[in-house]
Amino acid sequence: MGETATATLGAGCFWGVEVTFRNLPGVLDARVGYMGGDVDHPTYEQVCSGRTGHVEVVQVTYDPDELAYADLLETFFDAHDPTQVNRQGPDVGTQYRSVIFVHDEDQKEAAIAAKSAREASGRHRAPIATAIEPAGTFWPAEEYHQQYLVKRGLATCRI
Fold it and tell me: What's this model's pTM, rounded to 2 decimal places?
């Protein structure tokens, strides 16, 4: 294995999204946490208040020789409803918004292309609401959130 790469994605409640990415061949690790806000070391309670600006995200470490970033983005779009604004299913708030945090220009170009392709596909009745933003500091969520569903013997929390 050569170099690893990082992708950071917000697609609603991070518990189910983490499982989705962890199960992809080529993914070496997936950690849940927070990104995009203005508070250092935010807690789950602070993020859930909606006042920090953070998004619940999954940070994926993967082998780009085994898994292409474009394939990660396809899984991202399939794992949630990218037309929803500040919500996924029953979870409502800015912390559940759909966002791709890009770590470099290549990721930015790929994210723009993937969003445009999804928009043009006709698979959704509403416009794609997914934001594309520069990655900031990733704050890992509390340990009890890491692999939350796996620890409880659940495969998914899909609605």
Answer: 0.92
